[in-house]
Amino acid sequence: MCWLIIGEHALLVEAFVMRRPDENRSGSTISCCNAIPNVRSCFSVDSSGDVYLSDGFSLHALAEE
């Protein structure tokens, strides 16, 4: 599932990634890399420990079509 939230100046895209992962089970960490300039990506964890990915796009960067 993906949420598209249109604000006054930006489009926010949020997506569920995984249910509460085991804490540091394999010593790995969640990391993120931006592949598109001027896009901010981040992972977040809610109060239940579920992981989400959020990206923001300036409305100026989106084409009308």
Write up what this structure looks like.
This protein has 65 residues and is an all-beta fold. 0% of the residues lie in helices and 43% in strands. It has one domain. A hairpin with a 3-residue loop joins strand 1 (2-6) and strand 2 (10-18). The protein is elongated, with a radius of gyration of 14 Å.
Give the helix/strand layout.
Blueprint: E1 2-6, E2 10-18, E3 40-45, E4 51-58
Antiparallel strand pairs: 1-2, 2-4, 3-4
Poorly predicted residue ranges:
none
- Decide which structural class fits the backbone: mainly beta
DSSP strand tally: 4
Sheet with most strands: 4 strands, antiparallel
What global shape is seen?
elongated
Rounded to the nearest angstrom, the radius of gyration is: 14 Å
Helix content: under 10%
Identify the strand order in the major beta sheet. Answer: 1-2-4-3
**What is the CA-CA span between the terminal residues?**
23 Å
Could you name the key traits of this structure?
65 residues; mainly beta; four-stranded antiparallel β-sheet
Write a brief structural summary.
With 65 residues, the protein is mainly beta. The protein has no helices and four strands. The model has no long low-confidence stretch (mean pLDDT 75).
